[in-house]
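Re: weekly structure request thread

Next one in the queue (395 aa):
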Amino acid sequence: MSEAEQAPASAPEAAAAAVLDALNATDSNGTEALNATAKFVATPEGTALAYGSLMFMALLPIFFGALRSVTCSKSKELGENDYDSGFRNASDMPETITGRDAARFPIIASCTLFGLYLFFKVFSQEYINLLLSVYFFGLGVLALSHTMSPLMSRIFPESFPNKQYQLLFTQGSGESKEEIVNYEFDTKNLVCLLISSVVGVWYLLKKHWIANNLFGLAFALNGVELLHLNNVSTGCILLGGLFVYDVFWVFGTNVMVTVAKSFEAPIKLVFPQDLLEKGLEASNFAMLGLGDIVIPGIFIALLLRFDVSLKKNSRTYFYSSFLAYIFGLGLTIFVMHTFKHAQPALLYLVPACVGFPVIVALLKGELTEMFRYEESSPEEEGAKEESSESEKKDQ
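Done, posted below.
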C-alpha cells in the first residue's frame, strides 16, 4: 500500500495529508474481500463486477489528478494561487516530496502502522473508530468540496451572483501580526461545501459504501494532484521503499491486515460482491487501499508533467505508466483471486509503473533526460524569483 504524512493545515492540504494518513492505516492488499463472511461465496458475475468497478474507480483519480497536477504545477511556476481548483489560497499549492522525504517515508509509515496496531489491541475499537469518523468527516468534506469546485464553476451560469469572501484569523498586532488562517472563497465554493457536508453526514450516520467511496475518491484525487515528486529518482526511492514496506507488512506479519479490518474510515475504496443479489444494501466487499492508488498515481502524474516539459505534444510516458498501472493492478487481482490470500499491491504495481516508462525511455534514447528532469519546491521557486529580481536591480 502506501504511506503517511502529517496532518494538514488547509483544505487541499487536508485532503492530501488525509490520503497519506490513509496510507499509514490501510491495507495494501490491493483488492480483497477482507470483511466477507465465511459463509458467503461470491458469484463469478458479482466478483467480476466488484473487481472491475474497483479498477475503474482507481483509474479515475489517477487520470484526472494527473491532469490537474499539470495545472497546479503551472500555477506554481507562474507564482499564481488562483487556478480553478477550489479554495484559492497559497495553501492550494502542491507539496513537493524530496529525496529525503521519500527515504524517510517507509520508516514513518511502518512506525505509524505498528502504532495503530498496538492502539487497536489496547483500546476499544469502537471509541477509536468514532474519533476517526469525526476526523475524516471534516477532512472528507474539505477534500470533496475541493474536488467538486472546478465542475461547479462550469455548471453555474456566468450570471450567477458569485460573491467573494475571506476568512482571516491572525495572532498578535502591528508588525508582529501573524496569519493563522486565511481562506479566500466564493459562493460557488460554499455550494460545494454544502453538498459535501450532506455526503459527510450520510457517511457519519450510515457508513454507506457509496459515501465512503465518494470521500475515498476525493482523497485520492487530491493526493495525486497536490503531492508532487521533485524528480524521477525521488519517485524510484519512494516506490522502492514502499515496495519493501508493503511486502514485509503483508507477508511477514498480520499487522497490515489486522489494521485494515479494524480501521473504519474512508481510506479505501470498496465495492460489494453481492450487489447483484442484495442491491445497494449489499455488505460483502472487495476493497482497494488508497495508498495503492496515490503512491503510483503521484509517480504517473510526474511523468505526465515530464511529457509536458518535452513540448512534443505527446504523452508517451504518461500513457505507458498508466497502462502499466492497469496491468499491475490486474495482476494483483488475478494473483489474489487465484491464491485466496491478501496481496501487497505494490509488489506488482511498482515494477510495472517504473519498469515500463524506463524501457520506453531507453528505446527512445531519453533515459538521461528523464532522470535529469527536476521540479522545484515552492520555497525554491521563491528563492529563484528573489535572486532574479535582485540581479535585475543590480543591472
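The longest strand covers residues 178-186. Residues 44-78 form the longest helix (35 residues).
Next request, please.
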